[in-house]
Specification:
Number of helices: 4
Helix content: 10-25%
Strand content: 25-35%
Radius of gyration: 18 Å
Number of strands: 12
Structural class: alpha+beta
Strand order of the largest sheet: 1-2-3-4-7-10-11-12
Largest sheet: 8 strands, antiparallel
Distance between the termini: 37 Å
Shape: globular
Oligomer: single chain
Protein backbone atom coordinates (compact mmCIF):
# COMPACT_ATOMS: atom_id res chain seq x y z
CA UNK A 1 0.00 0.00 0.00
CA UNK A 2 2.93 2.32 0.78
CA UNK A 3 4.33 1.74 -2.74
CA UNK A 4 1.04 2.70 -4.34
CA UNK A 5 0.93 5.85 -2.26
CA UNK A 6 4.50 6.70 -3.25
CA UNK A 7 3.80 6.16 -6.94
CA UNK A 8 0.63 8.22 -6.74
CA UNK A 9 2.45 11.12 -5.12
CA UNK A 10 5.24 11.08 -7.66
CA UNK A 11 2.68 11.43 -10.43
CA UNK A 12 0.84 14.30 -8.76
CA UNK A 13 3.61 16.30 -7.02
CA UNK A 14 3.39 19.14 -6.13
CA UNK A 15 -0.41 19.34 -6.32
CA UNK A 16 -0.82 17.31 -3.13
CA UNK A 17 2.25 18.57 -1.30
CA UNK A 18 0.60 20.91 1.12
CA UNK A 19 1.77 22.81 4.15
CA UNK A 20 0.35 25.55 6.27
CA UNK A 21 1.82 28.46 8.17
CA UNK A 22 -0.51 28.63 11.16
CA UNK A 23 -1.17 30.85 14.15
CA UNK A 24 -1.22 27.92 16.55
CA UNK A 25 -0.07 24.30 16.61
CA UNK A 26 -3.60 23.45 17.75
CA UNK A 27 -4.26 23.03 14.02
CA UNK A 28 -2.04 19.91 14.04
CA UNK A 29 -1.92 18.64 17.66
CA UNK A 30 -1.27 14.97 16.87
CA UNK A 31 2.52 15.36 16.74
CA UNK A 32 2.92 16.43 20.35
CA UNK A 33 2.98 14.38 23.55
CA UNK A 34 -0.36 14.39 25.39
CA UNK A 35 -0.81 14.90 29.12
CA UNK A 36 -3.16 12.80 31.29
CA UNK A 37 -6.10 14.91 30.13
CA UNK A 38 -5.25 14.34 26.48
CA UNK A 39 -4.00 17.90 25.99
CA UNK A 40 -1.09 18.23 23.54
CA UNK A 41 2.08 19.67 25.06
CA UNK A 42 4.31 21.54 22.61
CA UNK A 43 7.99 22.29 23.06
CA UNK A 44 8.78 25.87 24.06
CA UNK A 45 7.63 28.25 21.33
CA UNK A 46 9.86 31.28 20.83
CA UNK A 47 8.34 34.57 19.77
CA UNK A 48 10.03 37.76 18.59
CA UNK A 49 8.43 40.37 16.37
CA UNK A 50 10.58 41.43 13.43
CA UNK A 51 10.56 45.27 13.52
CA UNK A 52 10.93 45.51 9.74
CA UNK A 53 8.09 43.22 8.75
CA UNK A 54 5.96 43.38 11.88
CA UNK A 55 5.73 39.58 11.75
CA UNK A 56 6.98 37.02 14.25
CA UNK A 57 10.38 35.72 13.14
CA UNK A 58 9.36 32.29 14.45
CA UNK A 59 6.70 30.76 12.22
CA UNK A 60 4.64 27.69 13.10
CA UNK A 61 4.20 25.27 10.20
CA UNK A 62 1.84 22.30 10.07
CA UNK A 63 3.48 20.20 7.37
CA UNK A 64 0.74 18.60 5.27
CA UNK A 65 1.26 16.11 2.47
CA UNK A 66 -1.27 14.03 0.51
CA UNK A 67 -3.96 16.08 2.24
CA UNK A 68 -2.83 14.85 5.66
CA UNK A 69 -0.78 16.55 8.34
CA UNK A 70 2.56 14.73 8.65
CA UNK A 71 4.57 16.68 11.27
CA UNK A 72 5.04 20.15 12.77
CA UNK A 73 7.90 22.65 12.55
CA UNK A 74 8.84 25.87 14.32
CA UNK A 75 10.84 27.87 11.77
CA UNK A 76 13.24 30.77 12.36
CA UNK A 77 12.88 33.18 9.42
CA UNK A 78 15.86 35.28 10.53
CA UNK A 79 18.36 32.44 10.68
CA UNK A 80 16.53 30.66 7.85
CA UNK A 81 16.58 27.30 9.61
CA UNK A 82 14.05 25.39 11.72
CA UNK A 83 14.17 25.57 15.51
CA UNK A 84 12.69 22.08 15.73
CA UNK A 85 10.42 19.57 14.07
CA UNK A 86 8.02 17.45 16.13
CA UNK A 87 6.73 14.10 14.91
CA UNK A 88 5.60 10.65 16.01
CA UNK A 89 6.84 7.13 15.43
CA UNK A 90 4.72 4.00 14.95
CA UNK A 91 7.29 1.46 13.75
CA UNK A 92 9.96 0.80 11.14
CA UNK A 93 8.67 1.10 7.57
CA UNK A 94 11.92 1.34 5.51
CA UNK A 95 10.80 4.09 3.15
CA UNK A 96 12.72 5.35 0.14
CA UNK A 97 14.08 8.84 -0.44
CA UNK A 98 13.43 11.48 -3.08
CA UNK A 99 15.96 13.79 -4.73
CA UNK A 100 14.22 17.16 -4.99
CA UNK A 101 13.55 19.55 -2.10
CA UNK A 102 10.60 21.91 -1.80
CA UNK A 103 10.10 25.24 -0.03
CA UNK A 104 7.27 27.02 1.81
CA UNK A 105 6.08 29.87 -0.47
CA UNK A 106 4.00 31.57 2.21
CA UNK A 107 7.14 32.42 4.20
CA UNK A 108 8.38 34.70 1.37
CA UNK A 109 5.31 35.57 -0.64
CA UNK A 110 2.27 37.06 1.11
CA UNK A 111 0.21 35.99 -1.88
CA UNK A 112 1.66 32.49 -1.92
CA UNK A 113 -0.65 29.56 -1.54
CA UNK A 114 -0.57 26.93 1.19
CA UNK A 115 1.13 24.38 -1.05
CA UNK A 116 4.65 23.20 -0.28
CA UNK A 117 6.16 23.55 -3.75
CA UNK A 118 9.23 24.04 -5.90
CA UNK A 119 10.85 27.45 -6.14
CA UNK A 120 9.17 28.59 -9.37
CA UNK A 121 6.99 31.72 -9.35
CA UNK A 122 7.55 32.66 -5.70
CA UNK A 123 7.92 36.39 -5.06
CA UNK A 124 10.76 37.44 -2.75
CA UNK A 125 12.12 33.90 -2.92
CA UNK A 126 14.56 33.22 -0.09
CA UNK A 127 13.80 36.36 1.88
CA UNK A 128 12.74 34.36 4.94
CA UNK A 129 13.95 30.83 4.25
CA UNK A 130 16.79 28.80 2.83
CA UNK A 131 16.55 27.74 -0.81
CA UNK A 132 18.30 25.04 -2.81
CA UNK A 133 20.98 27.34 -4.25
CA UNK A 134 22.22 28.07 -0.71
CA UNK A 135 23.55 24.51 -0.54
CA UNK A 136 25.35 24.52 -3.90
CA UNK A 137 29.11 23.95 -3.50
CA UNK A 138 28.65 23.79 0.25
CA UNK A 139 30.36 21.24 2.54
CA UNK A 140 27.07 20.99 4.42
CA UNK A 141 24.32 18.46 3.83
CA UNK A 142 20.64 19.32 3.89
CA UNK A 143 20.27 17.77 7.33
CA UNK A 144 16.80 16.40 7.99
CA UNK A 145 15.33 17.16 11.40
CA UNK A 146 12.54 14.65 10.82
CA UNK A 147 14.54 11.86 9.14
CA UNK A 148 13.29 9.57 6.42
CA UNK A 149 14.28 6.51 8.46
CA UNK A 150 11.70 7.30 11.15
CA UNK A 151 8.79 8.03 8.81
CA UNK A 152 5.49 6.19 9.29
CA UNK A 153 4.94 5.50 5.59
CA UNK A 154 6.17 6.48 2.13
CA UNK A 155 3.90 9.52 1.96
CA UNK A 156 5.30 10.83 5.23
CA UNK A 157 8.85 10.11 4.04
CA UNK A 158 8.36 12.29 0.97
CA UNK A 159 6.91 15.08 3.11
CA UNK A 160 10.20 15.40 5.01
CA UNK A 161 11.93 16.74 1.89
CA UNK A 162 11.14 20.38 2.53
CA UNK A 163 13.90 22.86 3.35
CA UNK A 164 11.80 24.04 6.28
CA UNK A 165 12.67 20.63 7.81
CA UNK A 166 16.41 20.91 7.14
CA UNK A 167 19.47 22.83 8.34
CA UNK A 168 23.10 22.89 7.21
CA UNK A 169 24.68 19.81 8.77
CA UNK A 170 28.35 18.95 8.43
CA UNK A 171 28.54 15.94 6.13
CA UNK A 172 30.84 14.00 8.49
CA UNK A 173 28.51 14.55 11.44
CA UNK A 174 25.35 13.86 9.43
CA UNK A 175 26.55 10.66 7.79
CA UNK A 176 28.49 9.46 10.83
CA UNK A 177 27.49 9.62 14.49
CA UNK A 178 24.18 11.42 13.89
CA UNK A 179 23.01 8.77 11.45
CA UNK A 180 24.14 6.01 13.80
CA UNK A 181 22.23 7.62 16.66
CA UNK A 182 19.04 7.97 14.59
CA UNK A 183 19.13 4.26 13.77
CA UNK A 184 19.91 3.27 17.36
CA UNK A 185 16.94 5.31 18.62
CA UNK A 186 14.79 3.84 15.85
CA UNK A 187 15.65 0.28 16.85
CA UNK A 188 15.20 1.01 20.56
CA UNK A 189 11.73 2.49 20.06
CA UNK A 190 10.71 -0.32 17.74
CA UNK A 191 11.75 -2.96 20.29
CA UNK A 192 11.00 -1.40 23.69
CA UNK A 193 8.19 1.11 23.23
CA UNK A 194 4.48 0.46 23.06
CA UNK A 195 3.45 1.34 19.52
CA UNK A 196 -0.26 0.95 18.94
CA UNK A 197 -3.42 3.02 18.65
CA UNK A 198 -3.28 3.93 22.35
CA UNK A 199 0.43 4.70 22.77
CA UNK A 200 3.02 5.92 20.28
CA UNK A 201 6.48 7.45 20.50
CA UNK A 202 6.92 11.22 20.25
CA UNK A 203 10.14 12.76 18.95
CA UNK A 204 11.45 16.31 18.70
CA UNK A 205 14.63 17.15 16.79
CA UNK A 206 16.09 20.63 16.83
CA UNK A 207 19.14 22.82 16.45
CA UNK A 208 21.04 25.48 18.35
CA UNK A 209 22.06 28.28 15.97
CA UNK A 210 25.62 29.52 15.87
CA UNK A 211 26.07 32.76 17.82
CA UNK A 212 27.73 34.87 16.58
CA UNK A 213 26.31 33.63 13.33
CA UNK A 214 28.38 31.46 11.04
CA UNK A 215 26.66 31.64 7.68
CA UNK A 216 26.32 29.38 4.66
CA UNK A 217 26.19 31.36 1.41
CA UNK A 218 26.26 34.53 3.55
CA UNK A 219 22.58 33.95 4.36
CA UNK A 220 21.79 30.76 6.26
CA UNK A 221 22.84 30.16 9.86
CA UNK A 222 25.04 27.08 10.31
CA UNK A 223 23.87 25.43 13.55
CA UNK A 224 26.33 25.01 16.37
CA UNK A 225 24.53 21.90 17.67
CA UNK A 226 21.85 19.40 16.67
CA UNK A 227 19.72 17.77 19.38
CA UNK A 228 17.09 15.06 19.62
CA UNK A 229 14.74 13.77 22.31
CA UNK A 230 12.06 11.10 22.37
CA UNK A 231 9.34 10.05 24.79
CA UNK A 232 7.56 6.71 24.68
CA UNK A 233 5.57 4.33 26.87
CA UNK A 234 7.95 1.58 27.98
CA UNK A 235 6.77 -2.02 27.51
CA UNK A 236 8.46 -3.24 30.71
CA UNK A 237 8.13 -0.42 33.25
CA UNK A 238 4.72 0.62 31.93
CA UNK A 239 5.52 4.32 32.21
CA UNK A 240 6.56 7.16 29.93
CA UNK A 241 10.34 7.28 29.55
CA UNK A 242 12.75 9.44 27.59
CA UNK A 243 16.28 9.82 26.27
CA UNK A 244 18.10 12.67 24.53
CA UNK A 245 21.14 13.31 22.36
CA UNK A 246 23.20 16.40 21.60
CA UNK A 247 26.18 16.91 19.31
CA UNK A 248 28.33 19.69 17.84
CA UNK A 249 27.80 20.26 14.14
CA UNK A 250 31.39 19.68 13.09
CA UNK A 251 33.91 17.09 11.96
CA UNK A 252 34.81 15.88 15.46
CA UNK A 253 32.36 12.95 15.51
CA UNK A 254 31.20 13.91 19.01
CA UNK A 255 27.74 12.97 20.28
CA UNK A 256 26.49 12.96 23.87
CA UNK A 257 23.71 10.75 25.18
CA UNK A 258 21.98 12.36 28.13
CA UNK A 259 18.75 12.58 30.07
CA UNK A 260 15.93 14.85 28.95
CA UNK A 261 16.51 16.98 32.07
CA UNK A 262 20.17 17.48 31.21
CA UNK A 263 19.33 18.29 27.59
CA UNK A 264 16.87 20.96 28.67
CA UNK A 265 19.47 22.43 31.03
CA UNK A 266 21.96 22.63 28.16
CA UNK A 267 19.40 24.13 25.79
CA UNK A 268 18.39 26.78 28.32
CA UNK A 269 22.01 27.89 28.48
CA UNK A 270 22.43 27.83 24.70
CA UNK A 271 19.14 29.58 23.92
CA UNK A 272 19.48 32.04 26.79
CA UNK A 273 15.99 31.21 28.05
CA UNK A 274 14.15 28.30 29.62
CA UNK A 275 13.34 25.50 27.21
CA UNK A 276 11.12 22.45 27.64
CA UNK A 277 10.73 19.65 25.10
CA UNK A 278 7.68 17.88 26.57
CA UNK A 279 6.36 20.57 28.88
CA UNK A 280 8.16 19.27 31.97
CA UNK A 281 6.73 15.78 31.48
CA UNK A 282 8.31 12.46 30.49
CA UNK A 283 11.32 13.01 32.74
CA UNK A 284 11.93 9.33 33.61
CA UNK A 285 15.29 8.59 32.02
CA UNK A 286 16.10 5.30 30.30
CA UNK A 287 19.04 4.19 32.42
CA UNK A 288 20.61 1.90 29.87
CA UNK A 289 22.63 3.35 26.97
CA UNK A 290 20.87 3.42 23.60
CA UNK A 291 23.55 4.78 21.31
CA UNK A 292 26.66 2.57 21.13
CA UNK A 293 29.49 5.08 20.93
CA UNK A 294 32.04 4.21 18.20
Amino acid sequence: MGFVCGLFLLLTLPALALTEVVASFSVCPDFFWKDQNGKPVTPTIFTEVNPQSGHDRYQKICQRYNNLYQFATLYDTTNKIPVYSAYKFRGIQRCSRKSDWLIEPKLDDNNGGPDMKNENNVQNLGQNQAINSDYVKSPYDKGHLYPVSQADNQCTAYSTFTLTNAAPQHWHFNRGVWNQMERAVLNYMNTNCQLDTNKIAYIVTGIVPSNPSSLMNKRVNIPAYFWNAFCCFDNISKKWVSKAHLGPNDISGTLWELSLTNLETNLAQDYGKAFSVFGGHCQSDINNPIYPKP
